[in-house]
Amino acid sequence: MENYIIEMLNITKVFPGIVANDNITLRLRKGEIHALLGENGAGKSTLMSILFGLYQPDKGEIRKNGQVVKINNPNDANALGIGMVHQHFKLVEIFTVLENIILGVEPNKMGFINRKEAREKILKLSEQYGLKVDPDAIIENISVGMQQRVEILKMLYRDNEILIFDEPTAVLTPQEIDELMEIMRGFAKEGKSILFITHKLNEILAVADRCTVLRKGKYVGTVDVKNTTKEELSKMMVGRELEFNLKKADVKAKETVLSVRNVSVMSEIHKKTLAVKNVSFDVRAGEIVCLAGIDGNGQTELIYALTGLQKMHSGQITLCGKDITKASIRERSKAGMSHIPEDRHKHGLILDYTLEENIVLQRYWQPKFQRLGFIKKKEVRDYANRLIEQYDVRSGQGPITVVRSMSGGNQQKAIIAREIDKEHKLLVAVQPTRGLDVGAIEYIHKQLIASRDAGKAVLLVSFELDEVMNVSDRILVMYEGEIVGELDPKKTTVEELGLYMSGAKRDTVKEKDYA
């Protein structure tokens, strides 16, 4: 009989209106990387939350090294050597990086927190595993990718032997993903055991030993990764063949929709420093322009300035011929801008509102949805139901589901449905497929191309090189706050794109005259 470090046997978990886990069995060997694959809402995060003590199973049992264990809360999990990197970060935004990492396990000397000891351990771990962070930075001021590093360091700080990674690469750049894969391999060699939730089939093939597939809360099967293919895994996950090679017609760009002139934006983290430096570009109707670059090179600040989330230092923004430089977020929306934000919780949703309320957030004041200041509830419900069905947004109670209770991927689908369906001239899509399964990614890519073919202008920000190369018509590469190159995806390579992104190459000839 084979020895397993963790066994989750016949686990069932029911929420109002949905069976999240239906009699699932999962076994983890010591020293292996075990991938957990499934569509958005398949029950992966729920299963791992049960192992970490955030939920209690309605049926089934958990064993560690053959012994039945009761995990009532995360403290019990940590005592058993189980750590978890969450998909939705469990960070205190007003605390520093250091304070978040040591929270709950603070080293103390005579009743006072020993910050020197904590700082030394954090810096040693960050250096050892290539996860560089600023211990004194405030969480709300750092990028999503940097917050992900803090979550990983939180787990490493606690010396856990069973490591749960819930979508850890969803917000990382390709280079950071490669580094994390190496870190995982290193953990496995040290004898640590890893449970790895991901939607990215290439990552499973690159790093996992075995893969368990869930579909709609049920166990589909467990396979040895070395004996399977991407196509077989995707079919197990969604139950059908997927189209991996995107087909799209040649671009037919028309009039300029978005005009950005000499825009500079101050950094929120490093005061008195420009995060965006004198950037100019256009996006035309009927094309997809992608802002590519390694996270932290000014893309976030530029998008914040374009969408009204942050004031510009200088420059001008024009949408459909109208100066929107000082316009409010609602004025930009009314002028024809839709925005799929980078951080869906901070800027995309009101988590304690229902799904239908979130779906009409950008439109509730329109005559279609209100009369004399009162919301037309039937119209809102009918509209929400149409988008829920069209975009396959899965939730326990349909339109009345509180959004906080939904899976991250389905929250993302709700935002995408709202922003694409809204009347718009320009779609600003920042990592639109973050946290989505391959079936949903295929659908969203087709929606972006359909928007472009319908004459909309699309500005895409993506850290996924495959997405950049397959979806965009033009690529603008940002490095240290500047656009250092404009590339045609049909005429460039991933390697050349990587050189621009790393700053090893820049285009001095391409300085266009935007006068």
Automatic annotation (TrEMBL):
- The ABC transporter domain sits at 6-241, 260-505
Q: List the Pfam families hit by this protein, alphabetically.
A: ABC_tran
Q: Which gene encodes it?
A: yufO1
- The main location is membrane
User: Where would you find this protein in the cell?
Assistant: Cell membrane
Q: Does the keyword Oxidoreductase apply?
A: no
State the annotated membrane topology for this chain: Peripheral membrane protein
User: What GO annotations for molecular function exist for this entry?
Assistant: ATP binding; ATP hydrolysis activity
Per the UniProt record, the lineage of the source organism begins with: Bacteria, Bacillati, Bacillota, Clostridia, Lachnospirales
Keyword field contains Translocase: yes
- Which named protein is this? Putative ABC transporter ATP-binding protein YufO
Its source organism is Herbinix hemicellulosilytica
- GO CC terms: plasma membrane
- Which keywords does this chain's UniProt record carry? ATP-binding, Cell membrane, Membrane, Nucleotide-binding, Repeat, Translocase, Transport
